[in-house]
Write a structure and sequence with these properties.
With 438 residues, the protein is α/β, with parallel strands linked by helices. It has 16 helices and 17 strands. The strands form 5 sheets. Strands 1-4-7-8-9-11-14-15 form an 8-stranded parallel beta barrel, surrounded by 4 helices. A 3-stranded mixed beta sheet has the order 10-12-13. The two termini are 31 Å apart.
Length: 438
């Protein structure tokens, strides 16, 4: 039977990225699983996760190869890989949509995307009912920004209206997917992996543009968590194609009680802003602790550091030093009383073409993984392994009441799962006419 055993109290994780945006006006797909050799070496990659002593893995099937049409799925790769995860008792944090959609959907301007994606999420949850942790849509803010404002991916548009259109469709897809998954797995937990950003005014004339950008950075999570936006952001949304009805959809579909707020932080997450609105990289100024505190104060949710990395440079210790700095920030967040539940070095192996933000197919290998693409451990992999060994037994004793009630794959009982489905359906039927809960 399902025992509801609680896993180790702090979720040390890594990820195998399934990014798949299209570029070149949709003619080429940047499939990171293919570029990094995971389709060939997936069993070895799971070996590496276990060698590091990691239980939690950000992972998901390639949506463009799996979701073939409405109610039409090819589960062959997912069946093989998720059966192996189950066998190994590895806990996946399932990444269902990572920057791209299947060709037949087109891109994030398609108003049918939210409902189609919710169907995909429900079908995945029904096929793998032992899966409990999900990131339905990864980095919603970045996905909309790079696709529909910067003009880099997918629709490659550059207007505020195209950005708001992409954003509202992406966040609605995330909300509907959470609802769909909960119908199958009522104790599902959603870890929103979202880029934590900050915009610094370069001079007094830049304060206004910087404040607007610092408002926009919250829009994806404001909508996702049903939080009322401020008046300036409301006008921005209304002026660029969001209707009052669409806005109220987000206000009335509050899902916070099922969520952990995932904050991603890289050295590229802070920006300088000029008076004319131009931006450029600022490097690390505030750091993870300060910016995550801003997000926590806004949303009051448990936190997980869901992504970070840095290239291994000529000295060989650059990534190791960044790991130590990020971990120090995690401990500072924790010591300041904010409930931080996990940390992630992203990703397991080196990535390809991250240096161009996946907008150019150059084949450049970026040495930022725990392992290189030959599956040899990097110094940061060794350092992360030691960090996990040093801290995994200490952190749970400091916050026993903040452990996440994660059911390990092998503890999930099919009969209990079917009972949960019936109970969830009964609750849904009973609450059809009831107001949404926050």
């Amino acid at each position: 039977m399902m025992t509801n055993q609680i896993t180790p109290g702090f979720m040390f994780a890594t990820g195998i990225e399934n990014s798949a945006p299209t570029i070149q006006n949709g003619k080429y797909r940047m499939d990171e699983l293919e570029k990094c050799g995971h389709y060939t070496h997936w069993r070895k990659d799971f070996d590496l996760v276990q060698e590091l002593g990691i239980t939690f893995l950000r992972y998901g099937p390639p949506i463009h190869q799996t979701f073939l049409g409405p109610n039409n799925y090819d589960w062959s790769f997912a069946d093989a890989t998720f059966a192996e995860l189950y066998h190994r008792d590895l806990v996946p944090i399932v990444d269902l949509c990572h920057f791209g959609v299947p060709d037949w959907i087109g891109n994030f301007q398609n108003p049918d995307f939210p409902n189609l994606f919710a169907g995909y999420a429900r079908a995945f949850a029904a096929r793998f009912p032992w899966v409990q942790l999900y990131t339905p849509v990864n980095e919603m803010y970045i996905c909309a920004l790079f696709s529909a404002k910067y003009g880099w991916w997918n629709e490659q548009l550059t207007t505020d209206q195209s950005y708001v259109t992409a954003l509202k469709h992406i966040v609605k897809a995330n909300v509907l997917a959470m609802r769909a998954i909960l119908e199958v797995r009522p104790d599902a937990i959603f870890i929103q992996s979202e880029s934590s950003e900050y915009f610094h005014a370069e001079n007094p004339r830049a304060i206004g543009p910087a404040e607007i950008m610092n408002g926009k950075r919250f829009l994806s999570l404001d909508l996702n968590y049903g939080r009322r936006v401020d008046s300036e952001m409301y006008e921005y949304l209304m002026d660029n194609g969001m209707s009052r009805e669409e806005y109220h959809f987000f206000l009335h579909n509050k899902m916070k009680r099922h969520c952990i707020m995932g904050n991603d932080y890289y050295v590229t997450n802070e920006h300088r802003v000029a008076a004319d609105g131009r931006t450029w990289a600022a490097g690390e100024i505030f750091g993870y602790h300060v910016i995550t505190s801003q997000y926590y104060n806004r949303y009051q949710l448990p936190i997980m550091h869901t992504e970070t990395n840095l290239n291994q440079g000529p000295n060989g210790d650059e990534a190791v030093n960044w790991l130590k700095k990020q971990w120090a920030n995690v401990l500072r967040v924790r010591n300041d009383g904010m409930p931080i539940l996990g940390f992630t070095w992203y990703s397991l192996t080196d990535q390809v073409d991250w240096d161009s933000a996946l907008r150019e197919n150059n084949g450049h290998v970026n040495p930022l993984g725990l392992y290189d693409l030959d599956r040899n451990i990097r110094p940061v992999g060794t350092a992360y392994h030691q960090l996990i060994r040093d801290w995994s037994e200490v952190l749970p004793t400091q916050s026993i009441c903040l452990r996440v009630p994660v059911v390990l794959p092998k503890e999930y009982d099919e009969e209990v799962g079917l009972k949960n489905i019936r109970q969830a359906k009964a609750r849904k039927d009973a609450s059809t006419n009831a107001p949404a809960n926050s």
